Amino acid sequence: MANIMQPQACKIMDIKKESQHEYTFKVKTDIRPKHGQFFQLSLPKIGEAPISVSSFGDGWLDFTIRSVGKVTDEIFEKQPGDELFLRGAYGNGWPIDQFKGKHMVIITGGTGLAPVRSMLRFFTENPDYVESVNLICGFKNEAGIVFRQELESWRQSFSTLYTLDNEKIEGWHKGFVTEFVSQVPFSEFGDNYEVVLVGPPPMMKFTGIECGKNGVPDEKIWLSFERRMSCAVGKCGHCRIDEVYVCLDGPVFNYTQAKYLVD
Known about the structure:
By secondary structure, the protein is α/β, with parallel strands linked by helices. The chain folds into 2 domains: about 10-90, Translation factors (Elongation Factor Tu (Ef-tu), domain 3); about 95-260, Nucleotide-binding domain of ferredoxin-NADP reductase (FNR) module (Rossmann fold). Helices cover about 20% and strands about 35% of the residues. It contains 7 helices and 15 strands. The strands form 3 sheets. The protein has a 7-stranded mixed beta sheet with strand order 10-9-8-7-11-12-15, with helices on both faces. It has a 6-stranded antiparallel beta barrel with strand order 1-2-5-4-3-6. Strands 13-14 form a two-stranded antiparallel sheet. β7 (about 105-110), α3 and β8 form a beta-alpha-beta unit.
């Protein structure tokens, strides 16, 4: 029987600077996850951190990482050719089969764009899979913008609205993503749509509330709680919220349950 806690060494193929504090690491591996799943990335004698897959293909995975602590700081010292240790994939991903043929509304805050990036790329590569995509992405400021080239290319494929919390630059709005939920044409979708929210807990909490104000039923909203992961296999209890183990039952949750889990 395979040891679900045993990491495997994987070579770093490429490192791309996304923003002031975020880098994307392309890692060589034959593991092929589902959209929205996460891995535990580790370094011997340092520790491990849960990171969502931001994209994947044949023989590789992308992890977009923000330097926020001991483990990620050490990962940022690595170079192409060095090794990272991975275990996973873990968790339930986005219910992409349920999204087929629907109008998709995807709202992200900051690096919350990373857990939906592979799904967005799937939608661009399979343009008939969903009816449409309305994409709202918010960042704190220009220095925090990630995936700049893809954000621009998505303007051609999706209905996009990009915003910065406290800056105004050309082609971008100023304000929080919650301020722009009302611009989504939910009434035109009938009952044929789904909403995905990913970002910091306050962003997800208040965006979920705002969606409700605009008539979106709870069962049409999906959230990801990847930030709460620790052991990833339900043993340590760090991700437990009441009776829910986020690593086993999530990290993707329907809002009917997720609204009681948001901090």
